Amino acid sequence: MKWLSLIALPLALAGCADVFSSEPRVVEPSAEVAPDAATAAPVAPRRPPATARTADQFDATTAEERSRAAAPGESAGERSLGTTVASLGDPGRVGFWLETPLVSAPTKGRVVLDGRSAKVDLIPIDGPPTAGSRISLSAMRLIEAPLTGLPTVEVFAGG
Predict the structure, then answer these.
(1) In which domain, by residue range, is 86 found?
(2) Which burial class, exposed, middle or buried, applies to 113 when counting CB atoms under 10 A from its CB (0-12, 13-18, 19+)?
(3) Which residues on neighbouring strands pair with residue 122, listed in sequence order?
(4) Which of 11, 34, 96, 113 is the most buried (most CB within 10 A)?
(5) How many domains does the chain have?
(6) How far apart are CA 151 and CA 129, in angstroms?
């Protein structure tokens, strides 16, 4: 039985070799096949390049996405949720979003700072309504909020 341990241990450790590697592991996406619309799986979110160091490099949104987010909202269907102090969220998470305790379910919305607005996905987080929120790098740049500041933004749902 002891000989089995001597064989099994090196084999088990060999399977863990890249866990202890200091080199980043790159996982190549599989070839994409156009799925049927009814069975389409969610698309993996884009990430900034691993070498990103500046706000421009981390902001991987396209000009079209920025244009859509900056387009004026339809205020007829909007309702004010109040204001929240927003800090920069995960800069590696691409898109226009606000994680906030002002909503209890994911919804579309808009944030406003000094008259500048961005359409965002409102994502619920735990906490009282007076707790702060986290905003995407792209949204902060669009409303010209200071990236290292804690701006107070107005939040609207709907529209």
Answers:
(1) 55-157
(2) buried
(3) 98, 107
(4) 96
(5) 1
(6) 16
For the chain, the distance separating the N- and C-terminal CA atoms, rounded to the nearest angstrom, is: 70
Cβ count near 74 (within 10 Å): 10
- Examine residue 95 and state whether it is found in any structural domain, yes or no: yes
pTM: 0.65
The one-character DSSP state at 157 is: E
Judge contact between 72 and 123, C-beta under 8 A: no
Block mean pLDDT (10 aa), the chain, length 159: 46 43 39 38 60 76 82 77 96 93 96 95 94 95 94 92
Three-class secondary structure of residue 154 per DSSP? strand
**Amino acid sitting at position 99:** E
- Residue for token digits 């884009």? 46
Question: Which candidate, 82, 95, 92, 93, places its Cα nearest to that of 133?
Answer: 82
